[in-house]
Amino acid sequence: MCPPEYYEVAYAINPWMDTATPVDTELALKQWERLRETLTGLGHTVHVLTPEANLPDMVYAANGAFMVDGTAYGARFKHPQRTAEAIAHRAFYESNGWTYVAPAQTNEGEGDFAFLPDAYGGLVLAGYGFRTEVAAHAEAQDVLGRPVVSLRLVEPRFYHLDTALAALDDGAIAYYPAAFSEPSQRVLRQLFPDAVTADDADAHAFGLNLVSDGRHVVLNSEATGMAQKLADAGYVPVLVELSELKKGGGSVKCCVAELRP
Ligand code: ARG
């Protein structure tokens, strides 16, 4: 995770961002701190990446890489405003002694990749259509040695896979069907017939942008409908307020890059 010390909406690269809407950086920091405490309170270890001035989106740490089996497949951002973030993430992985593979293809890390260790022996789900190039899916498969299933995103508000789909445990997912093309919806129904599905309200409240440890599901406090669906499915929803970070087009999951050493 990376604290939103220099967070602001200085440019607009997704439909949630509006440079005319003021951002309360102090409040963003408080909300982020609450999220970090929530995760450590649940027993997780959180490593903190040092934020850098002029990289306001660094708080969305999920976009910096995608790690599976101890190998981090690095990011290559689509928008020039975020390009330099990849360097900071690379330094982080390398300084911790993990294998880091620099990508040739445009991809936004865990924003567009999800890993399900128990689904079909270990499956990567990958989004494309807005940020990550589909060629990066093949590259990720080559680097990580895990099958990668490409899913096409079609709704501009759900520009990253992690805004529309989440791993709930090692083999189960929740997703918002309307964010995907018809053929991709069909693929998801075939692979995950028991998935928890979200409706428009759940998705617009960032209810899919969640972090789950298989039991506790940490999600945006506005996503009350989604929380109920998760409770009905046997999970324990844990709500956190992240109103300021929503203005940048992200929520819980965007702030967390999961380490799978
Ligand atoms: N403002 C950032 C962008 O548009 C938000 C990134 C959200 N991150 C995520 N993993 N969905 O790039």
UniProtKB/TrEMBL annotation:
User: Catalytic positions?
Assistant: H160 (proton donor), C254 (nucleophile)
The Swiss-Prot or TrEMBL record annotates one GO molecular function as: dimethylargininase activity
Q: Which domain of life is it from?
A: Bacteria
Gene3D superfamilies from the xrefs? L-arginine/glycine Amidinotransferase, Chain A
Q: Which UniProt keywords apply?
A: Hydrolase
Pfam family membership, one: DDAH_eukar
Per the record's keyword annotation, is Metal-binding included, yes or no?
no
Extract one GO BP annotation from the record.
citrulline metabolic process
Q: Which family, according to the similarity comment? A: Belongs to the DDAH family.
**Name of the protein:** Amidinotransferase
What organism is listed for this UniProt entry? Phytohabitans rumicis
